[in-house]
Amino acid sequence: MTLLDSAEAARELLERAGLEPTLNRIMVVSAVAAGHGPVTAGEVLAEVLREHKLNRVTVYRILDLLAEKGAINRISSGERAQHYCVGRAHSHFHCTGCGRIQCIANEAIRFDESAVADSLGLLVSHVDLVLEGLCRDCARAAGA
Ligand SMILES: [Zn+2]
Ligand SMILES: [Zn+2]
Fold it and tell me: Which ligand is in closest contact with the Cα of 72?
């Protein structure tokens, strides 16, 4: 989704979430964004360690904080490791074949808010769905 191309963008994202943009937080947000899609905490750690010295517990703690404040998205899917990504309201696809998780723009999913409002009386302000199935590669491999 929205990729952060600079430390400045990371700083803005943190400030929007009401977090002080410390250097460590900027590094972690940038590492999540560098994944170009959902990444695990381990992948974020590896990315941070490429250029900085930061211990694992600190990185994990910052990830938790960022997710709690809504600066980044946390995607939990079954028994898989939690994944993190950046970008405003969007959904995710979890492949049950290879376990890969990818970001899906809500525009790609036909979700009828007015139908939900009419039939259930619910006013939807945010959509964040987890879709499951087979990704293109796995579907092809399965001959589907
Ligand atoms: Zn797959
Ligand atoms: Zn995402």
Answer: 2
pLDDT band at 143 (very low <50, low <70, confident <90, very high): confident
Please give the full DSSP string across 107-118, using - where no structure is assigned.
GGS---HHHHHH
The pLDDT of 35-43, averaged and rounded, is 91
Residue-wise pLDDT for 50-90, tens only, equals: 988 899 999 999 999 999 999 999 998 766 688 999 988 89
Question: Whose atoms come closest to the Cα of 138: which ligand?
Answer: 1
> Quick count: other Cβ atoms within 10 Å of Cβ 108?
11
Domain 7-83 adopts which CATH fold?
Arc Repressor Mutant, subunit A (1.10.10)
Residue 39, amino acid: V
d(CA 94, CA 78): 10
* pTM reported for the whole predicted model: 0.82
Q: CATH: 3.20.190.10, 3.30.300.20, 3.30.1490.190, 3.30.70.1170. Which one for 89-141? A: 3.30.1490.190
3 Cα–ligand 1 center, Å: 23
